[in-house]
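Tip: read the tokens left to right.
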């Protein structure tokens, strides 16, 4: 994958790429938005742990397709308050660092009014590109 970072626009606001060019020939993997719902039905009570769980769920979905964090070309995240965006970004950056992701995916972060249940603070969805025909 090739990061797209034009020199005639402002640099990214965080650890992400403005765009990603994926080579021809491959499979697109798209996840639904993942909320911080553990397998036992519990929801962490802080934004950082929720973001960690959302990203862990995404990793599990990608693994089903034979992909991993290094295959992500775009992350979309939603938080319920501006106070949560730093926790999300810290979780995202640590997760990508731990996976050895050199080319940071394109990224969007939105502040939203809420999710299906009040205790959810973060939702994350991913688009990945897996090489192969």
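Filled-in amino acids:
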């Amino acid at each position: 994958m090739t990061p797209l970072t034009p020199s005639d626009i402002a640099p990214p606001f965080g650890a992400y790429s403005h765009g990603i060019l994926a080579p021809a020939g491959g499979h697109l993997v798209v996840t639904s938005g993942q909320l911080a719902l553990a397998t036992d039905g519990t929801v962490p009570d802080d934004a950082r742990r929720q973001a960690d769980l959302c990203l862990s769920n995404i990793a599990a979905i990608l693994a089903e397709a034979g992909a991993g964090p290094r295959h992500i070309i775009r992350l979309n995240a939603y938080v319920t308050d501006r106070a949560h965006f730093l926790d999300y970004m810290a979780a995202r950056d640590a997760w990508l660092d731990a996976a050895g992701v050199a080319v940071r995916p394109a990224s969007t972060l939105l502040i939203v009014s809420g999710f299906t249940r009040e205790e959810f603070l973060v939702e994350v969805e991913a688009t990945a590109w897996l090489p192969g025909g």
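The two ends are 16 Å apart (CA to CA). The first strand starts at residue 2 and ends at 4.
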